[in-house]
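Appendix C reproduces, verbatim, an entry submitted by the partner laboratory led by Prof. M.T., so that reviewers can inspect both the input and the predicted structure.
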Amino acid sequence: MVRFGYIILFAFFALCSCKEQFGDENLVVMEVGGESLYLKDVLASIPSGLNAKDSASAVEKYKKEWATNILLYNKAKENMSNTEEIDIMVERYRRELFIYEYQLQKIKQNQKPIKQKEIEDYYYENSDIFLASETMVGGFSVVVPNDNPDLKELRKLFRGGDENLHDIESLCVKNGLRLDLFSEKMKPLSLVKREGMQIYDTKEFLAHHRFFESKGDNITTLLFINSSIIQGETLPFEQVKASLETILIERQKNLYLKKLASDLYEDALNNGEIKQNIASK
């Protein structure tokens, strides 16, 4: 077994040194069924950062998979009596691949950036579909060890809310605490609520209660909520802006591809490339 390992390593280093020794990346390192595996392909298959042993294993694995794939393909051809259906599927896939790549190229050449006004207009025209599936809240929170000397001061600042945010950030930096800010990108209430926090999922409650605290054996979580969207209400624009842009980009692509196909068909009709109602010969 040890001897076999040395052989693999030797083979790997031999492969890696071939480029330097012969300066020929087109050196054939294996042949199967009339097909050749070249040094450049083997070297390209080796992930970077591997040690010598793992690199050698990667080389052997690639060579084995390459050879096995060819052997399976050749054996399949020998034993498939009717390949007509496969040929049809291959040709269909080939056409679809050409069409896909052509469409992709045309989209890249003609795609225009979505303007802010387009996004806003789409949001206000369709705001009834951007509803919160659960209650969302904006604000900030922090987890503080119970023995932290600044816990009392942080609690006081949190009660003051947004107007104390700068001081809260400074104290968090001083103590190496991670302040979670989610005023602009709201989070589900279920994600920020902690055990012991009496938070009721109603508009009236959240409008009059802002500061919440949860104290455990070793840590205390402080939470301030400065905004809320109750389940079923329309989500704010900033919350769905990224999704809106994605929707509009996809719509732009679909409209362009429909126009591309329609124009191509009409041009072919007009120039006689398409012939219809041809009598049988």
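The chain is about 55% helix and 15% strand. Additional entries are available on request from the coordinating office.
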